[in-house]
Amino acid sequence: MQFGIFSVGDVTQDPTTGRTPTEHERIKAIVAIAQKAEEVGLDVFATGEHHNPPFVPSSPTTMLGYVAARTENLILSTSTTLITTNDPVKIAEDFAMLQHLADGRTDLIMGRGNTGPVYPWFGQDIRQGIPLAVENYALLRRLWREESVNWEGKFRTPLQGFTSTPRPLDDVPPFVWHGSIRSPEIAEQAAYYGDGFFHNNIFWPADHTKKMIELYRTRFAHHGHGTPEQAIVGLGGQVFMRKNSQDAVREFRPYFDNAPVYGHGPSLEDFSRETPLTVGSPQQVIERTLSFRDYAGDYQRQLFLMDHAGLPLKTVLEQLDILGEEVVPVLREEFAKLRPAGVPDAPTHQSLLAAKNSQDSENSQEGVTVR
User: In whole angstroms, what is the distance from residue 193 CA to residue 185 CA?
Assistant: First the structure.
């Protein structure tokens, strides 16, 4: 099972000091956070994609390419790549390039995002969100798997004999997770292709998450990719920790109360009860995260949001120390104990390459037999 963090890259005023970091400071802080994630033994760092204030990650592959040069083991991913408003040709090129630079330490989460105005900014119609996601991803898959693509669709100009460059590393496209919190069509899309499904459940109650994941697992099996238990699932989460849970609540409350997304809404206590947000001791975070298995089943990737709502860099780095030293080692051990045989690991470039080589060998042997 993979553990990591994701950043939405918000530039938010620290409510305890009144200071707002500059965009430059925030971008550099995200890089420092990614490097810290590798230092403390996490598996994944993911960045969002936003094109509006107060967010800075408008160019995820630029950010991840920079991080790739400063890390050795970290899987570099996105928490959203906007499949609806990005040209699939450009996605194919950018992530294949990143894949080469990172020696395969790359995957991505496709999503539609949650910012409505982004559609007209990039010349698209939000009312076509689902059809755009379906058509653009169908083209992206072909661009990564076929050297010469002839294609015609509804939302972009046709392609004739087009070759996307560079080609995927080792002829193995980056693994794709389809991210959605509310759209069953996207769960179906992930299941149809046998891709991963990432339910970023940070704002949603457990019963909704359960329904979405069960739909994906059922359809994954329906399309012949394996049993429902073999489907590839990822979850989000939010945590803030101190040794003493009361200290954690006291320190985090002003950040929660003034956060740009959920501030001035439900109380910290209500939000924590209804969503995966866990503010407390490391042991409370361990117990809460293990409970996700009760409604999501055995899953492959857990990403935590830790650097939001104006938290200063020093505090975020302290949180990562706690996560890496006290929480994740226990979660790895406990999830492994509970995991039945036959539940697959999270895909990596190495595992996908091994599967490809095995399939190529089988095809070659069958060809010899036929001749």
Answer: 13
DSSP per residue over 333-349, as a string?
A: HHHHHHPPTTPPPPP-H
pLDDT of residue 114: 66
What are 40-86's pLDDT values in tens digits? 999 999 999 888 888 999 999 999 999 999 999 999 999 999 898 89
* The model's pTM: 0.94
Give whole-number Cα distances, 212 to 119, 197, 216, 301, in Å: 25, 9, 6, 16
The encoded tokens of residue 369 equal 């037999």
State how far Cα 199 lies from the chain centre.
9
CA-nearest of 321, 311, 271 to 10 is 311
Biggest distance spanned by C-alpha atoms of the chain: 76
Handedness of CA 344, 346, 348, 352 (dihedral sign): positive
What element of type H or E holds 82? strand 81-82
